[in-house]
Here is the input.
Amino acid sequence: MNDVLLQVKDLTVSYGDIPAVKGISFHVQRGEIFTLIGANGAGKSSTLRAISGLMHYGGMVTFDGHELCGIPADRVVARGLAQVPEGRGIFGNLTVLENLRLGAWLRRDRQGIREDIEKILESLPRLKERLRQSAGTLSGGEQQMLAIGRALMSRAKMLLLDEPSMGLAPKLVADIYATLREIHAAGTTILLVEQNANLALRLAHRAAVMETGAITLSGDSVALLASPEVQRAYLGA
Amino acid sequence: MAYFAQQAVNAISLGFLYALIALGYTMVYGVLTMINFAHGDLFMLGAFICLLLVTFSPIALPFPILLVLVMLIIGGLGGLIERLAYRPLRDAPRVSAVITALGCGLVISNTTLSISPYSRAMPEVFNDQYFNVFGVGISTLQMLIIGVSLALMIGLDALIQKSRFGMALRAVAFDARSAPLMGISVNRIISLTFLIGTGLGGAAGMLYGMAFPVISASMGVLVGWKAFIAAVIGGIGNIRGAVLGGFILGTVEIFSVATLPSTYRDLISYSLLLVILIFKPYGILGRAPNIKV
Here is the structure.
């Protein structure tokens, strides 16, 4: 396994004069699940937003052999990177079906879109019942599922997820993680940002720990899960 | 009774005109939460462009062609203003954008004024005829105003509710920060929204100029403000609200002129705005904005 899909080098992001990400480097291999964990404000979301082109950044981001720097967000999606943003970013005034269709905005293959919608609804039956309902009426868990399904509609090579467990009951979080496992099994590479270190480390192959804009630990997620630093700082042991 | 019915016909055609202009305000507000204060002046320009086309065209242009040309020219100008004046200020404080919009409006109205310092008579675009339907007089022009406005509104509604562009427009209006993650070019959607919104305003200007055939560089100010009121009454940002607000304002104006001294007209429409805003601060169909944390 030496096929790097996403390479991040010396990434810096700042809000005005305040640095949020201070030159981090990591890579994600094709077919793996990589997770960035860390406390609120560590710079995880800023990292994702930078990779997706939603924020200006310094350093280098290479995806599937192409440099992404300077490409606006709406064109990064075309390269095969789909983000499920923090807070889900569901269009509450649109129906569930319209949200899914928007996920396929850049695609022109009507037949394929229809098939993908079918496929996604099969694995997310709760959305099927609410297809014509406006997405704003869905529960938090359903909205998160919809956000993930919508991102899949772009047929992305890689999915970026920003705290999919946020604000959800444990049962729902377990459902979401089971779905992520299925998505990965179907061949999508995943970059997951989480505060819930325990869950994320159990799902991922490799991980990095972020603290105040820098990566302090990284490596195999099983090893990280067992490491005393992670145990103490994030798992309350 | 006939008198009442007559006034109702007048109210409907005026209401349609206000609604057409109000749609431009409300569409732009919907995607940018910004009031395009140049909209009234673009409306005025619609009438003048029509005048120019009729005066200088070597052949007599039929009404549909004129209408399309006016909409394209005014829509294009609206899109250009967005590109050159508003887009660079997208992330600036709202006040900067509002002042810029007011400035653009002043440039348009004063440029027009410098070219045409006096009011001008709008030539007749087609032969207007008067029909008497059960004692109520209705002109071809009034029917045309109602027909064209209705067609444009139905078209707009279909565009927004059914088309791919409309879906993206609603998505951008709801959350412009998430829309690019779908691959939607927010800039392109905003440009198109300006084009359509101001194009409708241009069409209204042309129809208004035909209905009240003395046009002047300052006509955009008062009519523009009133259409803005209509948009606010209906709930700014809400398409159906703009149409409803246009009708309410048209009806109130026509019937206040019909029953009270005509100088009370503007007092009454502006008071109506205040009263409605006391009870419905977001307009009749408007909803309180989602405060995102």
